[in-house]
Design a protein that fits this description.
4-stranded mixed β-sheet
């Protein structure tokens, strides 16, 4: 069935899909239905979902209270050019939970949340340049896409990385994007000061997914906060993923409070959502239509009633006990995977925090994007092993990201985690035999 559907898809979509992250050869598996932590594909195979739509399904699939909220809202209004009370309720929850968010505006994806945070920093300061970390992913907007995975030939000096535009991005975007080395405090400080008069803001994800969920060090975050404040620039946290890092977000967990926060994924209850939030003075000056708002912000589906209803239900369910329980499951999995690597006698490293986990099939100290590239060079079979592990886990009833990322949901149990560890050990042993 999946093979037949893929043949149909190729006739109407380039590559047969609208999302590169879900494709793998010879064809992706097509979902038929899902419930809780489990997914059934069109071929009738049941698997435990360990990626949860790349973090957005904090409660897994079809949680009864979220489904009921969507169903109730669908009977009232699904899409309309008017605000609804659910929008206020979700805004109240987020503003209460995140210390750096006193006002919020909703959009439709994490990419849009980041895009408007970047536009907000430029509009508020009147300056053109945004600084970001080399190798960090912040969605597919122009500035956010600079130097996500630059070719080594284009890297430039490690203390002053080059700004490299991917295909489809104009050279002006790269010129207005300043690239920082991750966790190199003094090198990054010097770069920021060199661009101080033109710097609108710095965007950082406190836990960078593409670096195996490597965390920005406390010293690095403190430097970014100090320098942006001194230079008159804004500090932006990308918490599209990192909202999982603490009950009060990454900003609550790290104690570093940004000026603006980009959000998405878990705040939408599984439906499309994005948001930008920040201090009242900044947000009101930028967006309040009662005055001379500096930044226009429209969008046909912004604060869509269905998403708002789902988000309210999901965030209420994700209370502190739920956060603590899910974080404990994450630690149980990280510990078990490390033991599995040791028992199997293979190279590997497990990273992440709370409910976010990474498994790389190599061993190295990783603090920057270039460390990842160097490590891959030292372990030329790491990519092959990751692909084999992904496929082995599919065969054993688990869906993970091909790159080795796992993101948990509250629908999962200790039994699910223990089975995942057990099957991971079996998969690692099989891979060791295949690559010997």
């Amino acid at each position: 069935m999946s093979s037949a559907l893929y043949k149909r898809a190729l006739e109407v979509m380039p590559g047969g899909n609208s999302r590169h992250t879900i494709f793998f050869p010879p064809h992706p598996l097509y979902a038929a239905r899902a419930a809780g932590a489990r997914v059934w594909d069109v071929d009738g195979v049941e698997r435990i979902d360990c990626i949860n739509n790349y973090s957005s399904l904090i409660h897994g699939h079809n949680h009864p209270e979220i489904v009921a909220a969507i169903r109730e809202q669908a009977g009232l209004v699904t899409s309309i050019a008017m605000p609804t009370e659910r929008e206020i309720e979700l805004a109240e929850i987020v503003c209460e939970r995140l210390p750096g968010v006193e006002r919020i505006r909703f959009a439709n994806s994490g990419t849009e949340g980041v895009m408007f945070a970047i536009k907000a920093a430029r509009a508020f300061t009147g300056r053109p340049k945004i600084a970001k970390i080399e190798g960090a992913y912040h969605g597919s907007d122009g500035t956010a896409g600079i130097s996500v995975s630059p070719d080594p030939a284009q890297w430039g000096d490690p203390d002053a990385p080059a700004s490299v535009a991917p295909a489809g991005t104009g050279p002006g975007t790269a010129a207005d994007t300043v690239i920082l080395p991750m966790n190199r405090v003094e090198a990054a400080r010097a770069i920021l000061r060199a661009h101080g008069d033109t710097l609108a803001g710095v965007i950082v994800d406190p836990m960078v997914k593409n670096l195996g969920y490597a965390a920005a060090t406390p010293e690095y975050l403190a430097m970014l906060r100090e320098e942006t404040r001194s230079l008159g620039a804004l500090l932006i946290f990308d918490e599209v993923y990192s909202l999982r890092l603490g009950f009060h977000g990454a900003q609550g967990a790290t104690g570093v409070i940004p000026d603006l926060t980009a959000m998405g994924k878990i705040i939408g209850g599984g439906l499309p959502i994005g948001a930008v939030g920040g201090k009242a003075g900044i947000m009101d000056e930028l967006f309040d239509p009662r005055g001379s708002a500096k930044l226009a912000h429209g969008g046909t589906f912004n604060a869509n009633p269905l998403t708002m209803a789902a988000g309210v239900a999901a965030m209420r369910l994700f209370d502190e006990p739920a956060f603590d329980r899910l974080s404990a499951l994450g630690e149980r999995l990280r510990s078990g995977l490390r033991q599995a690597l040791t028992i199997a006698g293979v190279s590997g490293m497990v990273g992440g925090a709370t409910s976010m986990i990474s498994l790389f099939h190599l061993e190295a100290e990783i603090a920057t994007y270039r460390d990842v590239a160097a490590a891959m060079g030292g372990y030329p079979d790491a990519g092959i092993r990751a692909e084999l592990f992904f496929r082995e886990m599919l065969e054993r009833g688990f869906i993970i990201a091909p790159q080795g990322f796992i993101v948990l949901s509250t629908a999962m149990t200790e039994t699910d985690i223990d089975r995942l560890i057990e099957e991971s050990l079996a998969a690692l042993r099989t891979i060791k035999e295949k690559t010997a």
